[in-house]
Write a structure and sequence with these properties.
The structure is a homotetramer of 508-residue chains. Helix content of chain A is 50%, strand content 13%. Chain A has 17 helices and 14 strands.
């Protein structure tokens, strides 16, 4: 059966080799500092096993016809894209932030397309390897990280130009049974609790960068893989239990210290076969695309979580009816709605690739993700604005429960007399977690950069957008050119994007 | 047959009584100062008669099964909503701005729902009158204005509290064969070239405002109707013909100077039947809703027209590849995409009302329209930024064609050497029309206020949005309340909105 | 001598009674969790004793003619206002954020004006008490907190309307030798390391709120004063020492548990003398005004600290010359310049009050402070944008120094090859402290709310601004009124503000 | 005497040769289409002759000690800079926009510095020519245009690289008695009503661009000078006279058709003396700097004019007390205050150059001008928002005065019952002029581009700002470098800027 329980998954994790480092020590997957991240991932297993969520959180494998966790599914229809987005959004509500399991499946969807296209164009057999690996995923309900971001060294140099050739992950040896890779990947959210690490390129590679055109998957405790793990801090609660206080983030700076990868787990190898090099950029972009589409699910949820908190604290403070409060709330809500709608319409405009995998629309996905990224800091500002200073100055929990100060602290916390002091406390404590904790700082940065910063979305949009088509409107209106063709939408659709890539490849 | 030609329509207009005033004189519909508006409306007839546009610009009447102009169609499906939006967008590209014919059909759609609901709840027979009137519309391909905005007097007083009771349009007499109305409606775009004027309320009416709960339709030259017409100015072209230079706007300040309306053309009469009064606000909002949904079609088009001009002038000036230029263009494009997607998703989430008419989603429609309104001035700024000062300082056309200065003027206009001097001239002349003419000022104001200003969309959004549902997220995360119900979307859907209104009515 | 050393001050603190609570325990002023705040305050003593800073950080007492710390000085000239602002800015650079000692002296300046005006108008002798207290301050180089913000309960109720009458600090007994007060003040930055607490009202008080019109000063360990202390967290450094890692914040939720205040330390007593009640609002606003003027010093510094970090990390990543990087940096710099200029011009427009104390211009101070508050979250966004994700995902310090992972971690951190790995590490570690630590969250909230949120500055601006004067421009231009008087500036100057208050008082 | 009357000035204009072209015809300076611009200039003569304005609008010549119009004065002190800025602001209030006479005097101030520095460095005698020309200016109260913007052809090519070498103004012959120039300058506001045209370079010139390093002055009707004139349109008023309706703009596209300039009117000649070429860029920047400082006077005025209109129409519509109205007004006011303060502080930080002329601070001037430019379109949005749609749809004036419709039109225009219908009419008519006329479009573009667009101010700021100094803060805080020097302000002051240029020149 393709849907596992959290316990089954956690049992696997416990058995993994100790290859994680934190604070100068080797730790294993039961270290309490990564428990917050496990709490998040737990939601993805629990809901898939929950009859009320089954329709959203499970899917039917196109390989086996069996029921699987949607986080291991390859999109076979527009409906799959819509459900992926909605699942992401609803699960994020439940953990008050990132659901942390998208990366893996977004990488798998990208690989399903790219390996297929590569086989068609080059006659390779990578898609077979991939499908075998996918079957393993679906049967075991695998949780994975996608390690994309290289450390990149000097940003104005290409991989092969760096002072140290290892600053981008590279193949140092390619042989028939597999490859040996060296380098590091950073910003690897979820890696500390993942079964598998999928590594893919971070950018286009030129003809001098063949060694850097590499993609593969390895178990997260594989020989040579070293994870430097960084958790995000929140104050431990002693009295007031709450979901918001239990979740956490953990990141990995993952070093591939001369790691051997067996051939059947290699999905791109520009060193052995330089014809594969152009697929590096194609894979990089397609993963980014699926991941940005996931952001059109999670970011509206985060906007809604923030709006929800802002609305609640406004009620508790008695200012809910003020004009400026409603203006600010409606701004958060409007952003959530627009970003989610962008993702939904990207799904509706999605098209089937030759591999059978559906690809959402790029322009809209990027426009939606960009708006979310542009707004993230402003959204925190709105919550801070409506919550007032107390969320950043409130005494610790213990002061509200100690004999000496508890009664006084609770007395003076009261606002709306209809709300109990404890609920007021819970509200401000929750907002403290949400906007002034270390985790808040991480969520802000992730909201800006995750899946690519607004700068990257602009670049992607402008590289896809049919600017000449657009100009035809002005040329017609200004009398520079004759008739204006019926101009449906000046966009390179998913199919055209694939075709363009194919032509590019054939042209070589 | 329900699709007429422009000439058939124009012949009707020519026969209308002279009841329009401009510059102190009575004018008729052939006055050259409103020719620009006719040029716009012409597009809606020509395209409906153009085989290449037929699928978009015509529809099948649900009354007769005959082919009709889509501008006379009542939405019978999600697809109708999508097509209306797309038609609006594509036609706006062709006229470089507002297509000016939405108002009438948006009012008709609102009436189709409200009269039906009213009949169901009150046992009236208004919908029969409406359907008969609709049939006349469809058969004759009627062009109409919707006169909604009252002059409103002192904005903090309700209609019946005004110093002058006529500052909102009101029924001064209601008798069996019809009503007599007095008052004025302003901002009546298209009225100068309309066959018909449809008057509807501008706001909710209280129990003291029964006389103001009024809706009806009259021919635009009806006895007692006086239109004070204001066209928007553009410099006449002598040499460089271009669509942008031919279009124009004309507005009417429409006075109902004790006008008798026959009963079969009355759609709301709170004076005779005070039970109808609550339907005033319902109708006001529903028209605004359809009209804002139309804006999710036209506003993206205007953003695209502006982006198109900005892209073209950037190419001509040789700065197209500059980072800041691409950033700015992508901002315009992103806005267009997001607003259009909001409208499309509003259509996909649309629901069938009891009358059979489809209603799009309110939250998204308002979020989209609001973003468009918030951005309009900024979009002009981007065009001005990329065009540079010349668009506002360029000599008149004649200087480029006169013997004495023509050669010099053309010599010094040259930028990109691959583009002819005449095309450079056409480009800057077009941008002059677009951003520094009087028409530009009108388009800016219309882009902000048309269909309701951002302020109004915020109010509508917040009155529909399920804020308590939203708060349940924070309550769950903060440990204030137990389980979080699967929270699909905290919105009052179209059906729930109708239900709410019905319950409100029944509660009385 | 009026300038003390840090050690002299710290010796005083050590002797204070244990009346602070943290994590359920009583703590004293040597608790290491408040050491970060002491580190900040230390700067204010060290620089006053540093010959290179003497001109800026010391002043001459107008009471004694002796040299004193500028943080105990009452502004006697425009130059004093300018120096206060510049001192604040330069010291904030050195601690990477809030210098934390403004509040006390801002309250003292407000009291110097208000007690004098009160004496003049009511014949009281409060200013004498104040001057005696000031002398004590100046002689001992006192560090103080100003406790202004009441807990405020239900925000739509006035103090006397609250369900619990103690939700605003109030006088429960007034007798000849002093008063007894009950209530709490929140958001009391610096209180944990202050010698003295100065309490002042948070808003205007009506005739039913006499008991709440209260201002006084007490030693911070005074009988009945209980401080619930909350420090802001930063990861302790083990290897890379840096000023940024040593500073910290600590806030107090200060409870006045029936505290007796001797008469000579009481500066406002509406209970005994209801004529004093209107001075509550006057004092509240005047403190806010001085404090906002201090913000025109500290906020530009924070913008510059953020800009500085953003510029440094851009250099290290090799992107310093990119257009978008320079655009973003220049935005931060521009904000800093405009806010600082607003404060400087407020000083230049400052006027001498009858008490001899100088008051800066209100409109400009508020316009400057507001811009700073509106921009604060956006400024963090820029730093995050240019720093990239690593600042939020970087492994702990130990991983860079351990035998097993140190070499690898340092190898992969390299960017600009001219910068050592350690400096790259220091840079990202510093930015981590600056934008993803708990302290960062507190600084964001403080940057928005400290001294009053943008909403409050708008209210203050609009209550002072001469709107009728402003309208005279349009009236002239539109031909509604004749000649336009030479219209220097439509503002209530400091002197006019005082005069207005005096007239208001006399009118009673 | 150095202060002339408007009539004296106008008499001169009338005598000028007919060298202006409009609509295919030669026109002279009495053409009614440029009367609006004359109306603006009139203000600068009238106020200088008005005893109440004398202190601001006149100055004492440092050449002759006589009283002169401040528009012909070279800044000899900080006070002169402050008065120039304030004069500009107050006069702009009176004409509802640009006062149009700054350009000339801003160019003269720049020339006073640059010719002096050039003489010092190169031993030329240009400053003597300049001073003689200045004396002529001051004695005759000369009104001049500064023609800076070349047509520029392809923007990515330098002057000598253009397909047509005339696309930047150039010297085609340099001989002992003078030079012959060919080319064109655009965006020449005020040129149609100027006595003199001063031409200066638009950018830095390289060693291949010697012929383009040229500056000179000629009478505006000089042989070979041809002006293609474009006025901005406003509807003529018949009934409601008002200053707003009388003002207008006129621009010139000025062609130098092989114009001989006598040597004593030549201020820069890179063709004859290539050592002068680097002064081209110096002069271009210094003029821009003075002109941007003028913008810190006019742009606050325009913000205030818009705010004034918005406040007035809000009062007339009865919404003045609404929260959102006050928010929006305060935003306009705040921008005006901040920009004006930036200019004032630039003056206070101004420094005396070796020539005796004062130069304001560059960073602040640019930061202020940039904010103004960024906000201009948004400010129009606020006025449109508060005025509502009527300002763009209101019937023509005649409809309010005709027998047939006047009473009705006036009846329905009523809002606030305390305000007469005529004043309501005047208010909306004025706002129509202000935001939907062709002149409004021109003012928008000018507000963005005049003196250089925000993009240009960013470039100037970043080229002056001491970024390495700024980074020292982060280096200190992060422990990368030791002590932080007392860091007053990381700016290249005016004196340092001059020194830098001198060193650059000497280095050659």
């Amino acid at each position: 059966m393709g849907v596992k329980t959290f316990d089954e998954y956690y049992d696997r994790l416990k058995k993994l080799r100790r290859n994680m480092y934190m604070g100068g020590e080797k730790i294993d997957r039961t270290d309490e500092r990564i428990a917050g991240q496990l709490r998040v991932i737990k939601e993805t297993y629990d809901r898939a096993n929950d009859p009320e969520w089954e329709d959203l959180c499970t899917a039917t494998s196109h390989l086996t016809g069996e029921k699987i966790n949607r986080f291991t599914h390859i999109h076979q229809s527009v409906d799959d894209l819509l459900k992926k987005q909605q699942m992401t959004r609803l699960l994020c509500h439940r953990v008050g932030g990132c659901i942390m399991r998208c990366m893996g499946i977004d990488a798998m969807n990208a690989l399903s397309v790219v390996t297929y296209e590569m086989d068609q164009l080059l006659g390779t057999e990578t898609n077979q390897h991939f499908l075998k690996y996918l079957r393993y995923w679906q049967e075991n309900d695998i949780c994975a990280n996608c390690a994309q971001t290289d450390t990149k060294g000097d940003r104005i140099q290409r991989p092969h130009e760096q002072a140290d050739p290892d600053l981008y992950l590279r193949i140092i040896e390619s042989r028939s049974d597999g490859i040996v890779v060296r380098g590091a990947k950073i910003d690897n959210t979820t890696a500390p609790v993942s079964d598998e690490i999928i590594a893919i390129p971070t950018r286009f590679m030129t003809e001098k960068d063949h060694d850097y055109a590499v993609a593969f998957a390895v178990p997260s405790d594989w020989e040579g893989v070293k994870m430097l793990v960084r958790p995000a801090y929140q104050h431990k609660r002693k009295y007031l239990e709450a979901p918001i206080a239990e979740v956490g983030d953990a990141e990995s700076f993952t070093i591939f210290d001369d790691v051997f990868v067996p051939r059947e787990r290699v999905f791109l190898d520009g060193k052995a076969d330089p014809r594969q090099t152009p697929f590096a950029g194609f894979l990089a972009l397609l993963f980014a695309h699926y991941h940005r589409h996931s952001y059109t699910g999670c970011k509206p949820a985060i906007s809604e979580v923030l709006a929800s908190s802002a609305a609640l604290v406004s009620e508790y403070s008695g200012i809910e009816r003020e004009d400026h409060v409603r203006d600010k709330l409606s701004h958060l809500i409007g952003t959530a709605e627009l970003v989610f709608a962008a993702g939904q319409m990207s799904a509706y405009r999605g098209e089937r690739s030759a591999s059978g995998t559906y690809i959402p629309d790029e322009i809209l996905t990027n426009a939606g993700r960009r708006l979310a990224g542009e707004e993230i800091y402003n959204e925190y500002k709105v919550v801070a604005d409506l919550a007032g200073g107390l969320c950043s100055t409130m005494p610790f929990e213990e002061e509200f429960f100690s004999e000496e100060t508890g009664a006084l602290a609770n007395k003076y916390l009261m606002r709306n007399p209809k709300v109990s002091s404890e609920d007021q406390h819970r509200c401000f404590r929750g907002i403290e977690n949400m906007i002034v904790s270390e985790l808040a700082g991480v969520t802000q940065v992730a909201g800006l950069h995750g899946g690519g910063s607004p700068q990257m979305e602009t670049i992607t949009m402008m590289s896809r957008y049919d600017l000449e088509g657009l100009k035809s409107i002005a040329k017609y209106l200004f009398g520079i050119k004759g008739e204006l063709p019926r101009y449906e939408r000046p966009t390179v659709t998913p199919k055209k994007m694939l075709e363009k890539f194919r032509n590019l490849m054939k042209g070589k």
